[in-house]
Write a structure and sequence with these properties.
With 317 residues, the protein is an alpha/beta fold. Strand 4 and strand 5 form a beta hairpin. It starts with a helix and ends in a 6-residue tail after the last strand.
Amino acid sequence: MKKKSYLCASKVRLIYKLIKMKTYKQLFYLLLLALTVVSCTQEKETALKAEQKKMTFAFLTDIHQNKQNSHDRANGLKQALERVKDTAAEFILLGGDLVDISGMGDAITREQADSMFTAFKQAMDKAKLPYHPTIGNHDRYFDREAGFVVGDELFKSHFGPSYYTFERKGVRFFILNSVQIGEGSDLTIGKDELAWLQQELVHVPLATPIVVVTHVPVYSLYYPVVEGTFSPRDVIYNYKELLGAFREHNLKLVLQGHQHLYEEIYSQRVQYITGGAVCANWWSGSFYGTEEGFLLVDVSEANKFTWEYVDYGWSPR
């Protein structure tokens, strides 16, 4: 107790000496300076904390596994997943065209389509990372007589709903089905899906950061790059209705596929990224400068999104 009393008395004597040595005005400015230093330190600590990563995920799109396993694409997917596992990714978002069922020339039977989805799921499960699939136009299966009318029925039998939402670490994700058949296009967001989306958004706080995943792009410069002309093709037909649903919300990032190009488009405070392709030029090399790869996305504590396109080192076979 004596030691503690001595320290307290020493502090009092020090303060008394400072008062004698300095005017009150000088002491006031010294105190103000000290408070400013403390404030600056706190601001720096807050800024550093805001920059810290709170979440990392990978976006893999346009994988195109097929029944022939041409170009050894099954091992290509395996190599891509091994590379993802070497990163800090906590989960995987899949951008569609997982397999080649629809629109690839040769007729695909129900059994063949089932086997491709089964093989794809097995490959994903072996990676032992949570994944969230998106349906692409080549993932559709049609057989009206057998009840496959919309195109997503077989996909749903393997993966669950073709559009859904989930939240992770304060970020809301919407996985959309952009390959529904509508008036004027088979690349639309259906009326039932739009109604569902609007209803889900009612329960999402306006400040919550939102990520949308869609196979078909909202915006893209594919045709100027590939054909040297502008065209409204190969984007979501009713994209204005889709964006209108998010008008009052904090839509931060749209991840899209379909084009096999890596694109970054920023418009009206929303970042749109076309995530290249795991298969690039359908497993036969790069596609207009985009190598086989995937997107790696970091989210900070301040909900700032940063990303990089990762070339996982595949060589055509």
